[in-house]
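Sequence of LD-carboxypeptidase (Lachnoanaerobaculum saburreum F0468).
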Amino acid sequence: MVKKIGIVSLSSGVLGESFIKHELKIGVDRLNKYGIEVEFLPNALKGMDFIKEHPESRAKDLIEAFKDDSIDMILCAIGGEDTYRLLPYLFGNNELKKVVKQKIFLGFSDTTKNHFMLGKVGIKTFYGQAFLPDICELSNEMLPYTKKYFEELITTGKIKEIRPSEFWYKEREDFSENSIGVDMERYENTGFELLSGKPVFTGEILGGCIDSIYDIFDNSRFEDTVSLCKKYDLFPSLKEWKNKILLLETSEEKPEPKLFRKMIGALKDFGIFDVLSGVLVGKPQDEVYYEEYKKILIEEIGDKDLSVVYNINVGHATPRCIIPFGVAAEVNVDKQVITFDN
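Predicted 3D structure, token representation.
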């Protein structure tokens, strides 16, 4: 049972801005109702400008969260875009390796790179939810599907299985105080969809937001992502990807199909699809480009040997499950379930 959560801002510092104070209060109150103590690491609430300018302070918070034995779980505030800048401060002198111990780490989006960082030093992590987008949900309750997985994680420290959500939700446009207590529009969800390959396959899952992964191969967002990520071997080698299951999901930027194809192409050129045991793909936010992405996946990587499963409720589309990285998983599309042996 999680007794204390440490909240870190490893990408964007929006959590420290006054315009989201009402959301922050909702989130803290919710966690307190579970009997959980909440600690914001020293730099987590310093706002967007400070956090952007001080990657070393973000790295310091992560190190502190691992060092502090009273913190059972590290929860990311939200994603962002430049967490790769923490690399020199976490790996330059093995700073991260010296302090890590197995504890729950949960985040998604740009946090994908933090998952790779922690994977490098042997920490098993959890992908799919974050404090601001999930715990601070403006409805009177967290979204039921999201809440179910969060509660399982804080009470057992594990996720046993994932099944599709009955509904998906249209993203909010208004996050002001006017939206407190206003429910999100919901639509019926279809289940996991097998695009190619066998319906049952196994392996450890790793991956995350494809936009963040693409930065490791492409400099168009920041000029030094490729060189820094290469210097610190952020992306696992083909040997390390062998027999793993790759998780991919698209960001709230809803990449156009042309860009999505380029992103898939970069991974294809790397050779990853030749060694994997399968691919899981999250539902696109608001189902934008749902069919287009599907067509691209089939054209670019769909073949009879590689299993590709679409429409997983993880990442930027709500509601969100939580996927454990680094533990044995079995995907069974026939039974519409992913089970974990952890």
